[in-house]
């Protein structure tokens, strides 16, 4: 039987690694256009928020928060737009009144409300407990809200390094997620409590490039 891999289980240690402390993620990505959230997500976030009272959007791994700032200019004054990023805007600068930018870990941060839209554009590639974040985020959705996140099934492994993609995708689908293999996107409609049958064991930030061509983290589960 293969030996267990040396994995990093402490969030703070993993987040100090150069692969995770990525100050280029979503830096220049705007709301619409060639390099945009609309293109990466296959939907315009504003369409998802249209017609809602006090529309709310949570963007995990938001980088500079450019998409949120652009959305703020086109949404009502009572909109609630929250970005969470390990590095945050560089340099910090004043945000529009409807935008809250939180510099912190998506691993440990918890909101005090639910959201109509939750997005994570290529952010899970740098998270240790990807499944834990997905399960928690499902509970942050409004009853008719939408969660969309990029996800690489090849990045979830067992503790010995063997693939866990099949059972993980089966569990996610059983919990209500849909997965597009072509676009590497998970989606979930409607907030709910989710308990996935996996226990996080640690992550490997030295796993090398994933489908994006960029170095990424593999997440390992028992």
Could you tell me the CATH topology label: Rossmann fold
* Major sheet: 7 strands, mixed
- N-to-C SSE series? HHHEHEEEHEEHEEEE
Question: What is the class in the CATH system?
Answer: Alpha Beta
Which blocks of ≥5 consecutive residues have pLDDT under 50?
Answer: none
How does CATH name the architecture? 3-Layer(aba) Sandwich
Through-space gap between termini: 15 Å
Number of domains: 1
Which strand order do you get reading across the main beta sheet?
Answer: 3-2-1-4-5-8-7
Provide the structure class: alpha/beta
What is the number of beta strands? 10
Question: How many distinct helices?
Answer: 6
Average per-residue pLDDT, rounded, comes to: 93
What form results from the Cα inertia axes? globular
Helix content estimate: 10-25%
Could you name the CATH homologous superfamily? Vaccinia Virus protein VP39
Share in β-strands: 15-25%
């Amino acid at each position: 039987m293969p030996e267990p891999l040396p994995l990093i289980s402490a969030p703070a240690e993993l987040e100090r690694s150069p692969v995770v402390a990525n100050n280029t993620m979503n830096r220049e990505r705007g709301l619409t256009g060639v390099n945009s959230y609309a293109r990466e997500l296959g939907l315009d976030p504003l369409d998802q928020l249209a017609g809602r009272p006090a529309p709310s959007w949570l963007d995990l791994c938001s980088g500079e928060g450019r998409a949120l700032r652009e959305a703020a200019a086109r949404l009502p004054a009572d909109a609630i737009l929250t970005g969470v990023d390990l590095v945050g805007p560089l340099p910090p600068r004043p945000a529009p009144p409807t935008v809250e930018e939180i510099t912190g870990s998506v691993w440990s941060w918890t909101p005090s409300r639910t959201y109509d839209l939750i997005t994570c554009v290529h952010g899970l590639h740098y998270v240790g407990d990807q499944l834990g974040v997905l399960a928690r985020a499902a509970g942050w959705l409004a009853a008719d809200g939408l969660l969309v996140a990029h996800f690489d099934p090849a990045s979830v492994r067992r503790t010995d390094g063997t693939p866990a993609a099949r059972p993980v995708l089966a569990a996610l689908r059983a919990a209500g997620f849909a997965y597009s293999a072509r676009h590497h996107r998970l989606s979930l409609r409607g907030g709910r409590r989710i308990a996935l049958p996996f226990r996080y064991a640690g992550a490997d930030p030295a796993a090398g490039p994933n489908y994006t061509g960029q170095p990424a983290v593999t997440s390992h589960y028992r």
